[in-house]
Amino acid sequence: MVEVAAVLPDKRQVAASFSRAAATYDSVAALQRDVGEHLLALLEPGYEAPRCWLDLGSGTGHFSRELARRWPAAGGLAVDIAEGMLGHARGLGGATWYVAGDAEQLPLAAGCVDLLFSSLAVQWCENFSRVLAEARRVLRVGGRFAFASLCTGTLGELRSSWEAADGQVHVNRFRRFEDYQHLCAASDLRLNTLVCHPHVLHYPDVRGLTHELKALGAHNLNPGRPGGLTGRARIAAMVAAYEGYRQPAGLPATYQVVYGLLSKH
Predict the structure, then answer these.
(1) Dihedral angle over CA of 11, 17, 22, 27, nearest 10
(2) What is the distance between the terminal CA atoms of the chain, rounded to a whole angstrom?
(3) Would you tell me the crossing angle of helices 83-90 and 11-20 to the nearest 10 degrees?
(4) Cα–Cα distance for residue pair 196/27, rounded to 1 Å
(5) Which of 18, 107, 129, 226 lies most in the core, judged by the most C-beta atoms within 10 Å?
(6) Which residues pair with 232 in a beta bridge?
(7) For residue 44, what pLDDT is reported?
(8) What is the phi/psi pair of residue 42, to 5°?
(9) In the chain, which ranges are E strands?
């Protein structure tokens, strides 16, 4: 399958945004923790200890430290496109090496790792087929690629509320789950698991959600997003539309999370 490039943010802007968020990211990363733990659970207890693992899109290094705890004898690589995140992670430890790099063109030798772990990073990659090809290249035979990503439907409540207010692009776009299915099936990796699960968070008000997205560095980075400040009337219209989704637990924000496990044969 030839991948049709999704309309995704410029990765230079993604890198800059996440670099700025390095100091605040961990304080609001409950979803990221939950998703990463689910991804780790895909690596069954009988999984052979890797000689070297790669945490791709390592961010502040939370899961680099978890991987190091699980396999203390293994070497560990933390790779991220955001220099600010790598600088923050270095001070907290976990990985053996910290490398600035792009998932679509990894600055690593072929066959150098046994486990490639990537939680909530590859959704920013324009060409996922290249990510899969790079995963196959850097993995040793028998190695595994475990990833969690986001697909369409993520933050659907916020998207619909903005559409009701002004019809402009205010929410990040992601590729379809069907695209992940086709691209994984067409890759030279063996597909072991590929599922999509919704994760729903609740907030007392819209401000709580938008503040969290900004603190994570994951606020609106899309091409075509409105320039300048958004008027008060449009914000009020969006908030009013979002109130229509309110539940007893608060305002829901749904993340459609893709979990994949592939292996090199």
Answers:
(1) -120
(2) 20
(3) 40
(4) 26
(5) 18
(6) none
(7) 75
(8) -65, -25
(9) 52-56, 75-80, 97-100, 113-119, 139-150, 190-203, 251-263
- Rounded Cα gap, residues 86 and 25, in angstroms: 13
Of residues 82 and 264, the one with the higher pLDDT is 264
Domains in the chain and their CATH numbers? 11-159+172-203+253-263 (3.40.50.150)
Do 122 and 131 form a contact (C-beta atoms < 8 A)? yes
Q: Which tens digit of pLDDT belongs to each residue from 169-200?
A: 778 889 999 999 999 999 999 999 999 999 99
Strand order in the sheet with 139-150: 97-100, 75-80, 52-56, 113-119, 139-150, 251-263, 190-203
**CA-CA distance, 100 to 80, in Å (whole number)?**
5
Say which amino acid occupies 173: R
Q: Length of the chain in residues, anyone?
A: 265
Tokens of 68: 């190091």
For residues 93 and 2, what is the distance between their CA atoms, to the nearest angstrom? Answer: 39
Write the single-letter amino acid at 23. A
Q: Report yes or no: 226 and 168 within 8 Å, Cβ to Cβ.
A: yes
Q: Give the separation between CA 179 and CA 92, rounded to whole angstroms.
A: 36
